[in-house]
Amino acid sequence: MRNLHRCQAPPRYVSLFRVNYRLAFLALVICFAPARASQAVSVGQIDNFQDGTLANWANGGGGPPLMNIPTGGPGGAGDHFLQITSIGGGGPGSRLTAFNRDQWLGDYITAGVNGIDMDLLNTGTVMLSIRIAFRQDTSFGAPGYLSQAFLLAPDSAWHHALLSITAGSMIPIGSPEPFSTFFTHPAELRIINEVGATNLNGDPIVAQLGADNIRAVPEPASWILLSVAIPIALIRRGRRDTSQRQSLEISSARIRGKGLVTTGLPLV
Hints:
Elements: H1 16-30, E1 46-47, E2 57-58, E3 67-69, E4 81-87, E5 97-100, H2 108-111, E6 115-122, E7 128-135, E8 144-146, E9 150-152, E10 158-164, E11 171-173, H3 179-182, E12 188-193, E13 206-217, H4 220-257
Antiparallel strand pairs: 1-13, 2-5, 3-4, 4-13, 5-12, 6-10, 6-13, 7-8, 7-9, 7-12, 8-11
Helix pairs in contact: 1-4
């Protein structure tokens, strides 16, 4: 007779709702994110720098290089972030600027990307006015659009910023194409410090900026839907799991009462 004690796995409670919850969350993201090809921005994409790279961000060279800092991000120890440094003056590296010409290109209108949020850190000594800027091409004086400013205090603390990308919030610089045309094919995304709203290059300044969790987000109504749907799903999952465990415990008690349990075999 087979020794039934050799195969003793701990009892497991399998929640079908847990699987369904994950599928539901994936569906919510997919509904705002069309199939992503190379250089096609999509809702939910994020640069968190945990792979140790610069995630295709650059500053043109000639000044202090961008750096991937391996710890001290908003998540604490072991959380990587991007560090941007400027030295002021009038030469290379004078402006607090980083740009991306890769994963942040694409059709923002079709993708439904209406904002970019990120975590920011000011380790300098002066207030920063952080904006995102988009260029129509990559030449120095190219026209484009500039976001409203996020004021970042020099307190060496992480702050969460949401920078809107809508026709009503973006500032045209240098007579770019109309908003609805321009944002189907921007040539460059920039993170800059600019007090005024006169250019897409930023102001000369001595400063150091940390950036992390740079993420594409949908229109506010859609983002609210996601933020509400996820906690509700978590609550329902908890209730469903509790109900299933109670049902299994009742069933197990009934089986034991009938003497149908074989020693060494777990109830599953």
